[in-house]
Amino acid sequence: LQQAIDAYRIILNFIPNGEQNRDWAITRNNMAVVLQTIGERETDTTRLEAAAQIFRDSLAVFEREKDDLNWAAAQNNLANVLLKIGERESDPKHLNEAVAAMRATLVKRPREKVPLDWAASQNNLGLALYALSEREPGGERLTEAEAAYRLALQEYTREKSPAQWAMVENNLGNTLVSLGTQRNDQAKITEAAAAFRAALEIRTRETFPVSWATSRLNLGNALSSAARFDLGTGELEEAATAYGDALTVFTRKRFPMDWASTQNNLGSVYQTLGQRARDPARLEQSVAAFRAARRIYTRRAFPLDWAMTAYNLGNTLQLLGGLSDKPEHYRDAAMAYRDALREYKRETTPRQWALAQAGLGSALHWLSMAEGDTKSLAESVAARRAALEVQTFETAPVDWANAQNGIGMSLLNLGTLERSGKYLDEAEAAFQATLKVFTRESQPLQWAFAQNNLGDVHWNRASQGGGDAEYMKAIEFFENAKQGFAEAGYTIPIPLTDKKIELVKQQLAKK
Asked: What is the pLDDT of residues 97-147, one digit of tens each?
């Protein structure tokens, strides 16, 4: 690639008197494409920024020459390099510029005249919108990205353009996974997995090994997301296999960025497997995978990816704390979330900021339980309420409900430790709020946990002098929880719930 750049520089020397004409701009544009390719493999953005400036210089010439075709090509290239720079930054400035540049390209690339170029620009617009969606709350950008990809598929058909068709199917799948996760929409995630499997019919290992590995990685993401709707481990194990396949191509030496991304996602799968099986060995594998990814994702070179892996590491350390009852795991988790919040800002990455605040709140909650410290509980409530500034019911209902549940848990424990009816009232309101999202029909397991938590609120009220009615309400909610656990096929909490009912009845009988 460096030889190609040197060759373009030699060609530029033959342009008379360094004249900045159409030939000069085309040659410079082609050289910038090579610079971008090299820059994408490096940890800093120096070459990417140099490529962006060359594309801008070429655009000025093509505009002066009224060369719409080459102007659109250079604008398309500029959008792509701005996207690559923006993906590495917390500030959405370059991503917004990429979206604007791609929309400008589409003006000069009408579908009627250049249908395949138009489709390429729609695909690239989708990529820019998808990246921008990670910097903004809500799913509006994701919806726009989905629409752009579906437009591209109108021209990129499997019969006429199989490689491009598979590429767009892959990109559409990524957007559908994000939409499905954000909206708790199983159908979107199922459609995403189908899109990746379709892409893999063209992207075979023999013909397109790197594209095959990319789609295997993305299929793993879809299967991992789909697993939230199924308490088994089949989809998670299949996801781990898909990630393992990707790592046979994405080695650390040849593809450090893809290797790190796959390690991060593998860590997430091990995390969920460890959580479901209560298996500390799987959780330790998760920690190792996240730490491997962080060898590439340094804060200086990739601040947002560094923050992402810190957040993910915090989640796994919390789970290890739950299995070991060692406070140091919760302290390490809180430290990891605080690391993430050094880069995640409400203004630039609101959704990730809110998730990290919620994670910090959870770690502080469990740390307080391990150490009997009400100060950590109060800090937990504050962090979780901060998350609700972004995680609204309208824009992120599942995240909102999870945050409400976390607030309720911390307030319930504050109410228990300090024997405060005020905290219990606030806890009840938070748990009731979760039922707007966690309905018995759509989310029976989460609904059952909410019923259990409401039972705990009424039991505490009764124990603090609330009267027989509070005992009866506690029994009613615990019975509801038992039914919900059974309907969800999750029987582990049922014996404990039976024990609670028995204890409540004994206390009521003694009155």
From this structure: 999 999 999 999 999 999 999 999 999 999 999 999 988 877 899 999 999
Tokens of 269: 């799968």
Domain membership of residue 13 (yes or no) is no
Rounded CA gap, 282 and 260, in Å? 19
**Within a domain: residue 460?**
yes
Domain coverage including residue 486: 438-511
Q: What is the CATH number of the domain that holds 499?
A: 1.20.58
**Rounded to whole angstroms, how far apart are CA atoms 216 and 199?**
10
| E runs forming strands in 29-122 | none
Domain-embedded: residue 445: yes
Instruction: Print burial letters for 304-328: b (CB count within 10 Å at least 16), e (below 16).
Output: bbbbbbbbbbbbbbbbbbbeeeebe
Based on the structure, what is the number of domains in the chain?
Answer: 1
What b-and-e string marks burial along 22-38, b requiring 16 or more CB atoms within 10 Å of the CB?
Answer: eebbbbbbbbbbbbbeb
Q: Is residue 338 part of a domain?
A: no
pTM of the model: 0.69
Question: Are 210 and 254 a contacting pair, CB within 8 Å?
Answer: no
Single-letter amino acid, residue 25: A
